[in-house]
Amino acid sequence: MITLTLVGIGTGNAKHLTLQAIEALNQSDLILIPRKGPGKDDLAELRLVICNQVLQPDGPVIHEFVMPERDPAIANYETRVQAWHSQTALVWSHGISQHLGNRGRVAFLVWGDPSLYDSTLRIADRLASTMATQVEMIPGITSIQTLTAGHAISLNELAEPFIVTTGRRLRENGWPEAVSTVVVMLDKGGAFTCIDPAGVDIWWSAYAGMPQEIKIAGPLQSVSEQIVQTRAVARERHGWIMDIYLMRRRSGTALA
Fold first, then answer.
1. Angstrom distance (rounded) from CA 168 to CA 186
2. What is the C-alpha to C-alpha distance for residues 176 and 188, in angstroms, rounded to an integer?
3. How far is CA 178 from CA 84, 135, 160, 193, in A?
4. Would 91 be classed as within a structural domain?
5. How far apart are the first and last CA of the chain?
6. Closest by alpha carbon to 21, among 116, 112, 100?
7. CATH number for position 100
8. How many folded domains does the chain comprise?
9. In the prediction, which pLDDT does 240 show?
10. How far is residue 252 from each of residues 61, 156, 185, 189, measured CA to CA in Å?
11. Within 13 Å and on the Cβ side, how many CA atoms surround 234?
12. Residue finishing a domain among 106, 138, 170
């Protein structure tokens, strides 16, 4: 049987790895490293840097593979993503079979935590349909934690709930009902421009926890355009961007 360990690695800083994560990587026989093509390989290189820093000299084999792309011809978003998951699982299966056959320990380094807005667990479920697999998971520091730590703010207000959502949901549905704090992930850019900025503060981070981290905070109506422009410049410079932000309605501002 293949044991697949999904290792949360935080946001690209090797200091974010737990001792449990380092131990799991060193106990594996094979580590899968995805590449996304020219101009998008910073994340693969960061994974390799982490491996070089924490693996023992006689450590696991590292297998790099090219990630499949989502098929733009599939109009429905969920169907398109599910097809992409299936394609990715097949690529994993081929790599694992090439190096290990049908038994051994495989590790996959997951940004943040594998349980939070990440598809790796779903891909692992599809892998199980092609080979006998059991899945283990090592928790990691999330981008939410890195965001709040970087800005030195609390995630929630006293005794109050918060919601974590996506940029797509914010655009489609607006501000979630009955909460004053919203964390937005997986935003293609500027979903916060779709809401009324009155009485809203925002804390935005790009490349949170990495050397190139960018942070902007303030009243949404004052910094919205600055964030949009800064994001565009950073994406052009690096070829990719990962950002996250927290928005909070000030006390006395009406909730949706």
1. 8
2. 19
3. 35, 37, 10, 20
4. yes
5. 51
6. 112
7. 3.40.1010.10
8. 2
9. 84
10. 57, 16, 26, 28
11. 18
12. 138
